[in-house]
Amino acid sequence: MNKILFLDTTLRDGEQTPGISLTKDEKLLIAKEVDTLGVDIIEAGAVAVSDGERSAIKDIVKEGLNAEICTYSRAIRSDIDYALDCNVDSIHLVVPTSELHMRKIGKNSEEVEDMVIESIKYAKDHGLIVELSGEDASRANLDNLIRLYKKGEEYKADRICLCDTVGILIPERTEEIFSKIKKEISIPIAIHAHDDFGLATANSIIALRNGASEVHVAINGLGERAGNTCLEEVSSALKFLYKEDIDIKMEKIYKVSRTVSKITGINVQPNKAIVGNNAFTHEAGIHVHGIAKDPSTYEPIKPELVGRERRIVLGKHTGRKSVEIALKGFGLEFSKEDLEEIFKRVKEIGDRGRRITDGDLLAIAENVLALSYRQRVRLIEYNVVTGNKIKSTASMILDIDDKEHIEADVGVGPVDAAINALRKTISEITDISLDEYHVDAISGGTDALVDVSVKLSRNGKSITTSGVDVDIIKASIDAVISGINRLLK
User: Fold this and answer.
1) What phi, psi does 356 have (nearest 5°)?
2) Pair 310, 411 in one domain
3) What pLDDT digit, counting tens, does each position of 285-322 carry?
4) Global pTM?
5) Residues 317, 354: one domain?
6) Is the domain of 24 the same as that of 165?
7) CB neighbour burial string for 233-272, b if at least 16 within 10 angstroms, e if fewer
């Protein structure tokens, strides 16, 4: 393959994910994070959407990022004028190319061609880079599509793009289409794939191997319906499987994925490739035994290459080796008999359908090994006030080393406020980072028991603990205080 360009569309197509609506500041933060990955082009939004969207695009342009800043534009002069006003580097000029999509705007192929010519001429006259994109191109007549692309090339478009708008391409057809386009077009060709049938990554790679030199991607595969091609999947496959020399900074992928997930509120599914929580997590005994001898036994790449860490978790399928590794990780010394008893108790909990946190394991081990530790932090009382127009406020009274400490703080909701107040209260003795937060309802109804699990870290050491209560705020506080006490041991 030639040099591969990455166009990240998280802020445009990704924001069209149902339920996502980003503020100006959130869009800027994501743009800055994506830029650290080394992508070549950032599609910052669609200029015709709103005044707020244009304001956000302007802020991104002013940030002076390394990536080319692009905006989605229809073949309408007003869109191009908006793009010029935003001072972007390029436009992603999208026009319908299938009969179905041309009927949507009441145009035929000749009329669309005229729109393209006029728009490209106007954009180029005003100094814009133009990427001409065929909407629903995977269902267009291929000869007509190539004719349109040739017109784009004739009028000095810089790149062309084929959009598989509803994700119906299969790899064999992708190879056929891109091979034919490559024979007819000399400017760079891009693939914009959707994942409706789970083939976006495969189709994108096939396109790159058959003439394309640019791929459109989104962090965590965000996008309409089933989403867009995942940046993390395509880049990892190219780098580690096809041994391509790409500019993406792979070690930053997980951090950016987590940031985007946190900002958008869209959680990554646990079994998601590369960035899912389970991607480098092992529970089954035979797997952990193999990992202990040689990580490549059950891992295709080292987790550090994509900014991850290997995790050994305990549960129903846990083997003795998993328990042994976990206990040694806590610096505990134990005999074979101790290990056997701890292993037995872990299995009993796993058989009851419970996941076993670090805190659970330590509690079991402390019981078996007759260990004890002083709980330096205890909850005395808390109070939370929330409303629908102001931030929630929480006050907290803790017993820390036998002295009462009282603090208050605010948050976007009652749980956030309570955790912020808790962290503020203990800030005098230590700084604790809340890295992960997860809640499950154990039973049904409005009075359901909830199980809150958290991952906390301090001075490079991390621990997972949980709290169970009918009150999600209390369960959250219990989980965090449990972790704090164990990290302070």
Assistant:
1) -110, 115
2) no
3) 555 556 666 777 778 999 999 999 877 677 777 788 88
4) 0.78
5) yes
6) yes
7) bbbbbbbbeeebebebebebbbbbbbbbbebbebebeeeb
